[in-house]
Amino acid sequence: MWPPPKPKPKRIIAIASSNFSNLKEPARTLHIALLARAATIFRVEQIIIYKESNTPCTPIKTVLEALEAPQYLRKYLVPKSRHLRYLGAAPPLRSPSHLLRDEQSPYREGYILRRIGDKAIVDIGLEKPVQAKVPPGLGPRVTLTQIQGHWQYIDREQIPVYWGYTVTCQQSLKQTLQNHTTPKTLVIATSRKGTPINTLATQLKTKIATAETLLVLFGTHNKGIQEIATQENINPQHYIHYTLNTAPLQGTKTIRTEEAVLTTMAILNLLDQQTTT
């Protein structure tokens, strides 16, 4: 089915800012790109980068956001930066919002070129910019929908299909848990010391079906969520419902974050009843 529906529950992943800091370019950009593709394949709608080991989140955020931007908008949105010099070597996401010029879709990402009263001239990747009704105060990047031949602004949260991810930064794992959990959030941590996921498959299926949001926490290749929580002097069990090993009997000594995201979200995607109905 293409484009795929927006996932229910909403899928959020949280990764540590210290990930990829041990890599040099161009490997660093390529590993972040693999993370972006893993998140996109399994319809993650938000990627949270929480600060860990005093490493700023900006370098990862910059690459993830550049990859998420449709190709035709990169000339507006992607600045020249040392963090992005190898972006062209990264595999494209080709998510539903990454439309080619001749592809038909009722939705498109755009960049406001100029305003005319309550309307705007917007580049949405077609042969020519379009005129669209866009509320004041928005932009420069906007999402448009076409209704009866006319383009107008739409909140991307209202789009019924999966439309890619957004990226946010948090100052700590604790702040992530405090700001992104509600009674309807199912919080899962990944760990090689966790419970093998196959032993909880039936239970997880039920929990996922009743949740509004699925928040999955990842540590680093050499530091788990429990260790990071200890560093921050918090008890993660106040927030986390399950700590899972999603690669039992792993054949490598360590699993990189982008590999953990791919493995974990693949299994959770299978357990999500939306994908089996």
Automatic annotation (TrEMBL):
InterPro entries: Alpha/beta_knot_MTases, NA-bd_OB-fold, Put_MeTrfase-C9orf114-like, tRNA_m1G_MTases_N. Gene3D superfamilies: 3.40.1280.10, Nucleic acid-binding proteins. This is RNA-binding protein. It comes from Thermofilum adornatum 1505.
